[in-house]
Amino acid sequence: MISNIETDRWIMMGLIGFAVGLLGFLLHQLIERISALKWSTTKEFLDDGKVAVGWMFCSAYSMAFAVFAAAVVVLWRPSAGGSGLPEVTGFLNGTQVKKIFSIKTLVAKFVSCTAAIGCGMPIGPEGPMIHMGAIMGAGLSQGTSDVFKFKLPFFERFRNPEDRRNFISAGVAAGVSAAFGAPVGGLLFCMEEVSSFWSNTLSWQIFFCCIIATSTSDLFNSSFQEFRQIGTFGGFQTSRYILFNVYDAVDINILMFIPSAILGVLGGLLGSAFTILNLKMTRFRKRRLASISSPGLVKVIRFVEPALVMLVMSSFSVFLPMAFKCIPYTCLPSDASTVSDFCVNDTTNKYDSQLREEEETFHTCEEGTHYMNGTTLFSNGTYNELALLLFSSKDEAMKNLYLRNSHRMFNYGPLFVGLIIYFFMVIWAAGTSVAAGILVPMLVIGALYGRILGLMIVDIFGVHLDQSYWSWMDPGAFALIGSASFFSGVARLAPAITSIMMELTNDLKVLLPVMTAVVVAKWVGDYLTHPFFHALLELKCIPFLNQQPNVRINKKNVQLELFTASDIMAFPVVTVNLIEHVPTLAQKLLDYTHNGFPVLKELPNGNCIFHGLITRSELLVMLENKDVLKPGPVEPLDDSNLDIAPIGYDAMLRGPVEREQMQEKFLQQFVDSNSHFRNHYVDLTAYLNMSAMSVPCKFSLHRAYTLISALGLRHLTVVDESNQVKGIITRKDLMGFHMVETLGNIMETRPYFK
Amino acid sequence: MISNIETDRWIMMGLIGFAVGLLGFLLHQLIERISALKWSTTKEFLDDGKVAVGWMFCSAYSMAFAVFAAAVVVLWRPSAGGSGLPEVTGFLNGTQVKKIFSIKTLVAKFVSCTAAIGCGMPIGPEGPMIHMGAIMGAGLSQGTSDVFKFKLPFFERFRNPEDRRNFISAGVAAGVSAAFGAPVGGLLFCMEEVSSFWSNTLSWQIFFCCIIATSTSDLFNSSFQEFRQIGTFGGFQTSRYILFNVYDAVDINILMFIPSAILGVLGGLLGSAFTILNLKMTRFRKRRLASISSPGLVKVIRFVEPALVMLVMSSFSVFLPMAFKCIPYTCLPSDASTVSDFCVNDTTNKYDSQLREEEETFHTCEEGTHYMNGTTLFSNGTYNELALLLFSSKDEAMKNLYLRNSHRMFNYGPLFVGLIIYFFMVIWAAGTSVAAGILVPMLVIGALYGRILGLMIVDIFGVHLDQSYWSWMDPGAFALIGSASFFSGVARLAPAITSIMMELTNDLKVLLPVMTAVVVAKWVGDYLTHPFFHALLELKCIPFLNQQPNVRINKKNVQLELFTASDIMAFPVVTVNLIEHVPTLAQKLLDYTHNGFPVLKELPNGNCIFHGLITRSELLVMLENKDVLKPGPVEPLDDSNLDIAPIGYDAMLRGPVEREQMQEKFLQQFVDSNSHFRNHYVDLTAYLNMSAMSVPCKFSLHRAYTLISALGLRHLTVVDESNQVKGIITRKDLMGFHMVETLGNIMETRPYFK
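ok -> structure tokens follow
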């Protein structure tokens, strides 16, 4: 054995994967169930000619679920709203966000997300799956719950911040894996977007976690549909474990890169527009809600909004398709010159016509006299294009959009109408109070404009089928590339998006055009605005530290190498002494809310030098343990013999017993002039962190930034030549706006920059 | 514009991608040409019944190329030998390896690799492609060449170590992308295995570089075969851009994870055996060659060895298949119970029978009377299984092994013979002096035992074809999973191997079993031995610093948190003063070969504190610039006004003018007692690195390790409480064997550990 084999860690990773996979399965099946009931019932009404009743049912059903989804969040668990992705990203970057890893949040998220997506809101389950995965990772690995007040006696060694963070990362990756059936995509998504700290060891463990998560959800989803068993348990069915499986993929061509680049440009433009509009919408909503004085009214509005979204969506779904004619199927036999209409039982394009027969006759197209083989459907061989896009779940719409050899399945009118509706409805819906992600809706939007471009190419150059030099001109392939481009224009992820797209569609042949669209969309998008999720972080005031500093003043990148640590540091610093006077310490804790305090040690020459760092929580624990407070004068402990410290590591890690609201009162007892502790001292030697980093004043700001972000430091003490504390740099000092302001001022005064 | 758009950097990335892609294309075509000539000519002899002549031609042809491939390396450019992967990995980790990025090495590598693989040595082109890609990255981005003595006036801003390293990483990724047609795999391989430093920005740029590299090589390879045009330029042909394309992929089943895990175990066991044997072989060769006194004889032996490999391989290829009967084709119609023999023109299994007709009649199987449609081949409907594996290029063998619905195409005998031959011949060949990688041979070995397991399953449970619950029992699918397992057992990479396998085969359906095999192979392998490439690094004495420390004493992981920086630091330290006496400085440079020196500054209180770090190269440049040497006493420069430094940044970066051999003489002039400079001083203020890190003696060793590896530091100075230098930690102090020794000694003396 050449390295440490941590069986328990792998088991925990497997457990997290299994739990998240199961969760993904439940979510998927419930959504399918709710969705199927809505569409099939509405369709029955329409088939009977009862359009008004159908619309009423459709709207009422959807609105009920939407209100329920919002109510769970608004009334019970506000932390379950939105996608949760920014909060988890912020947490993994080193920011504490409250209540996001509680079981209650998990339940609320699950219920809200299921109801909202099931009823057909234009949102996706992936953001919530990520958040739920993170909660699973945190909950299972820590084995404790504040809600249920228990603590399991297993896996105790994982109860430390680093392991917790790693298991949360695994949960995030498993969430994406289970939602998309994309294990590699999940791993890469977590690495690229969510995690700030990564190692090869962690990569392997998360890899394993993703295998288990995807296997679990794929296996169960292959065996059940709407909780009813389909097929024999154990077999993975293509249509169930590859979400938008592409049949008959086409070979690519060098010319295909031109439309792919155009799609990339569109993705960048529309993605930026999407980001900007969504943020404007969110800010507008926030402002308006803040201006309302009654908290009850605010809550009502936050219920009503999703219901309103669903009223609009339902009306669109029911009525808009009626504005479009039912058009006949057009099959494309191998001889492209003769496009035959009304080919209901044509076998040249088997998958295509079958799928349409079974799924698309529903809307208002007349029932016909043709009898379809194998089923009991009657059809007049026509279908409604817009109903394919709006009058069904998004997954169905996606499959149709990606369909190959179906060049004229959708015409411009329905595609444009669908694009406009989805684009704006997603912007609106994604900011409402329900638990919602935007990944699948992004794919729909991209697929719509991708197919429009594909159709234009077909209109110019004609229909070319299998195996010809021009067969790459397939609108279904461009729909796929369009999805990737919009995804990239909004989220700006490279290998993650590529992997997810491949794993979603099983079409590796279009890999290079997809990658081209992704990179072009990133270029265009970067020119226009920030990535969506980073903009959300800013909007939510989460102090996220990028890997690399990016400070722009007067439209120019600022070279942080030209500045020093002392230019940005905060000072004066609140410090504590190695042997600290108890009332003074309590007063400091009362006066300042800082989380970390540099500890000073007095040298024989009288200099007080930087000796380490101690956190607020550690100081509070010490004050709570009265036996470490001793009447002075106190001799410093010999620090070569620290195992005798009276407070154990566990107790330190657990933090203070007093709740936050009570701390002020608790501290006050030490400060009172008649306090029992007025002459007591506390020796910090055994508890301070002597491996806290410090840098000299002249240290380059760029390197200081790298140090803090690469090592995930919360405090970096700045010292002078003889090691005396001059200042301190924290995460907040390195936020973009703060750096721009401080460095801008310096640039104006220092002659070098003129 | 919200961030800096570095157009020139993207252009350079594109250029590197294009150049590497083109190189990949040339390599591929040349290898195809050399290989085709060998097999077709030998086959003609065999067809005419001239077995002895055929064998002689085959051997002579192969041996000539093998000797040539070795000669280029041995006589001209030793740095071009082997795969080059450890050297590049070591360089990107921060170790300087000489001559590896020269144009001569590129040419030698290309020629040697082409000749060796073309003639059929059991090696692969991927390692050399990685090295050549790295050279391209270094050469193009720096625009300078020592060989041709030129320096281009473009892209001057990339001439710094960080950018150079990034472009080299891009070249590496492009090399894998072009060799495998795997852009995402290339990116991930570079990230996981080769690069030690990575950022999201770099990831995007390399992503782009990989798109260009893959597109270029795929496009040209689709349009040319052996440099003759095939098809219309511009179209990507599946069989040419997806190396081992899988047709008719099968749906997976939960039961499939059992054999996949077994393959994982086999991969771990055989992969470790492979690693250990290969290293033993290499060490044995080294020892034997070192014991030979005549350098001429050593060179001859290093020529002859590859020729010997080829003699054995050729004899195997020609004679061994004769020991096996030619067996009739067995087609598998959809009704599995009736397996029909002699189905030459059977269309039930179109791809399968066509491929065999065209490619497999060659060996000694008799010409028949059946006439095949579409070609002019006559066939008696039989083929030789072992000839399929040995008497053709490895790529052909791979395609046959991965073939689906070809359950009984290979029987146990030929598979076992092939496995044994490849396993040992690859171990032998991979250590010879030619430029060679082992990635494709690894895939062959894995595919062979994968197919054996698949065949066993078929023998136990019978043949099951398309769409049935048991159709997952396809030996071709298990061959693919076997390849992944062996690759993982040897190299231990997670997402990289998975992506490469998917991009090589276009079979996403087996993704989960592949991942399972990969992770199980890693577990088993980790229990037995180090990853192959890391073992090679150690063998080549490249001081590679892992991301995470892994020190094992008495079979237990050592907690580095329990040690301090002062436990491992080297002392006393050779330091220089901020105002240094010139002869003293020269003497220090003569006496010590250190690369970096802490600079001391005297405080008013007499303490000499740590002020920064200066490199040997910088000190030499200063001594070469006589105008910075001034007769004493010298006042220190005001360090708020450093722009007036007489030596520019460029000159410092370029390093000393004197060649290494001359430096001693150069330094001697300062030391001579009658030197003109005996009273001169030099002020280092303007040139030292004030952002050099220092840590206190009590700083945790674990954090010190993380600091050095995460930031890529070469020196970490250890200081005491009043900032005086106590020691220094360099990369070498953190190497495994050194840590084990030092910490082992400490553990014996310190009571805590008893």
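Residues 695 and 718 of chain A are 5 Å apart (CA to CA).
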